[in-house]
Design brief:
CATH class: Mainly Alpha
Number of strands: 3
CATH topology: Arc Repressor Mutant, subunit A
Radius of gyration: 15 Å
Strand content: 15-25%
Number of domains: 1
Number of helices: 5
Helix content: 55-70%
Oligomer: single chain
Largest sheet: 3 strands, antiparallel
CATH architecture: Orthogonal Bundle
Structural class: alpha+beta
Amino acid sequence: MTEDQGIEDLVNDPILSSGARVGILIALFGVGRSTFTDLLRSTGLAKSSLYMHLQVLEKHGLITMKTEFTRTRPRAIVRITEAGIMEINHYFDIVKRYFEERK
């Protein structure tokens, strides 16, 4: 793989070429799981945009979404999967290698 091939792969990747989806995966990578509301706050996305990005990530097996019921209301819980962890680690590796080769 050439040095720019990794970056080309990221740019052409239907999942990781979206900064919003990368941000969601990074947020979940740090905590493992989050509520929909907390992801709204941490990403700054509109509800409809966040939901759309979560659907894409779930379709590709990088997250799971489940509704849990509390005493007061239902709560959407989003979890990163092992595939999601592997994907974001791959992203980190490519970005790290890209910057190291530029030193």
